[in-house]
Design brief:
This protein has 4 helices and no strands. The protein is mainly α. It has one domain. Helix 1 crosses helix 4 and helix 3 runs antiparallel to helix 4.
Length: 86
């Protein structure tokens, strides 16, 4: 069974990085919502929205995000430097 949180993170990162056209991602997510046992990456590849190299790049981004955020899948903006505390 696919990991739903990682699928959603991959979709968000694909959108944020412009790796996948918005319409293609929308179509893929509609298909995925009806068949969540398949991964978003697999469906994007099958629909021709991305190639295997792009899938691997997005999966690397997902892995890096999870590693950098202790497994937390939520996307957060980096904290801004607060220069007033100096």
């Amino acid at each position: 069974m696919a990991d739903i949180n990682q699928d959603l993170l991959l979709a968000a990162l694909a959108l944020l990085t412009d790796a996948v056209p918005r319409d293609a991602l929308r179509s893929t997510l509609l298909t995925w919502s009806q068949n969540p046992d398949r991964s978003v990456a697999e469906l994007l590849r099958e629909q021709g929205a991305i190639n295997e190299g792009q899938v691997q790049a997005l999966q690397c981004l997902v892995s890096a995000h999870l590693r950098n955020h202790s497994g937390d899948v939520q996307l957060r903006r980096p904290k801004e430097n607060n220069w007033s505390t100096w």
